[in-house]
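Forum > Structural Biology > Help requests

Title: Can anyone predict the 3D structure of Sugar phosphate permease?

Hi all, first post here. I have the sequence for Sugar phosphate permease but no way to get a structure on my laptop. I'd be grateful if someone could post the structure tokens.
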Amino acid sequence: MAHSRNIRTTPVVEGSMTDARELAYQPRRAWTITGLLFVFFLINWGDKAVLGLTAAPMMRELGLSPAQYGLAASAIYFLFSVSGAFGGFLANRIRTTWLITGMALIWSLTQLPMVFSAGFGVLVACRVVLGAAEGPAAPVALHGLMKWFPDTKRNMPNSVFLVGASIGVVVAAPGLAWVAETFGWRWAFGVMGIVGLVWAVIWWIVGGEGPFTGAQPAQPSRRDAAVEGGIRVSYRRIFTSGTWLGATIGAFAVYWGIAIAVTWLPVYLEQGLGYSTLAAGNAVALTALVGAVALFGQGLLSQVLMARGVSSRWARGGVGGGAAVLAALILLVGLQVGGGWHLVLLAVGLQLGVAITAAGPPAIGEIVPVAQRGGALGMHVALQTTAGIAAPYVTGRIVSAVDDPLAGFHTAFAVAAGVILVGGAIALLLMRPQRDAARLGIRLPTPTVVPPQRNS
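Reply #1:
Sure, ran it for you. Structure tokens for Sugar phosphate permease below:
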């Protein structure tokens, strides 16, 4: 069913599992793909961040109120979740390399109209289309990336890929802020469009499909054997499992804070604390760097723990959920202090919990057949990113509702801390991949191996 046009499955028998893994796993090629997808996600988040980084001059030129800007910031998420789910299920049937190329091209084309005399209506329309094309990015790319690594080696490449989001802000914040101040805010959008087009060409030439196609049933049945690519499990059972629910709720909570950091933190720094556009961009870059460290740290720590025999409940669920809980507490403390520590703790509180977004996908990958992994990850990311719709808009309403914008921002940050705290605690309690894999009848990590495939 899934991948029927692209791959010829060759099940690995127990006795040859180690040899088959060594033959299939190609570190150099796998990490080349990881590097390209890292840049892919870097561009993805640069496209998101460009709105926040140009918010102040844009709001002045277009005469936007905080509520209108909040609507424009939320527009990218109007179709983001729906398209994320759809793209995830589509990745079960279509080569991920083709889908990724198409997404990158659409991202680039939606940035270019803003170079010209586009107003509020065009801005909102472009952000809606951009969101529709960016929604499937994470589930499709993660699904494709997992094809290049066996389960025990997926923590670090998944984290490296997701670090692209943080590095995207680190690179984009000062760079796009400089472009906005030097050439005008509209050209910040133009730069992102050009970069995306260049990457799409490189990916079409270099990208490809990996050799690992997933798990086998614990107790093979006649029905299982009839389904190409392994067993199939009811999506209802997958979506009600503790691991899927915990990973999704935890990621939703953390994404609430991330969405605020991307869309409203630059505005807070400029209008609330008096930073210049360039200084705000640099501060946001440093904030995003915390997220990059958290993602790398999660990947490294989880991989080390699993190599030492620690269950994925703690190596993935414990590390990710614990990071979110700690982030919420730090954010609350940061709201009570002033001076330089205020910004430092704010940055850590909004970004440290991002570790759960890296721990969740490989944990979900443990409990679902490969033929359904794209759909499971698509729904995971779709629900996670609904926070991107609510958080910017709610923040805008809170800030607009009070006479003192600074007090409004602090209230919004406190709400974010509460959301992150609850979500992290739920992830800690519910994420138990090995238990859920056993309940769903999945036995890991015996892989099915196919030859790597290029785009051509």
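The chain has one domain: 10-454. The radius of gyration is 21 Å.
Shout if anything looks off.
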